[in-house]
Design a protein that fits this description.
With 191 residues, the protein is mainly alpha-helical. Helix content is 82%, strand content 0%. α1 runs parallel beside α5 and α2 packs across α6. The longest helix has 32 residues.
Amino acid sequence: MIYLYLFITFFEIGIFGFGGGYGMLSLIQTETVVRHHWLTSAEFTNIVAISQMTPGPIGINSATYCGYTAVHNAGYNGMMAVLGSATATFALMLPSLILMILISKMFLKYMQTVAVQSVFMALRPTVVGLLAAATLLLMNAENFSTPTTDAWQFGVSVFLFIATFIGTKFIHINPIKMIAYAAFAGLMLLY
């Protein structure tokens, strides 16, 4: 039964996941951690970190790892958990596939119409909001600690956040290099 719920959940996320993978993170977190309790918040945070470091889109990677972990946490192992991965990944991609097939010809014909342009204008702030929600969801005590719990970890986390922001925004360091630098610095400073 978990496979059906995984399919429905990730299909819905695929339908409403405008803004790409980062826009989907808040939806995935809400569904898998808060609503269905398939994952803990710490497991979800680890999944996001792994999804960012592995090749491919973060939304699909997150769905793959969430599907596996959800089935594994339900007590199934091996190929059953791999089937959970495949189910979540396929369900996430299916709405996009269907929509692209249905609208590809019509889009080129009607792209310059006022109605289509209005829809895209309305989607822009929505995408920004979803990306901001994903950022805020990951800025929690499990990722940054708190000054009262572990001042060192909190200080290092805030420093790495600020350094990464400055490095990518103002110094224009390649984001892939920044991920590697931050991971190395985090390993050196926190362990």
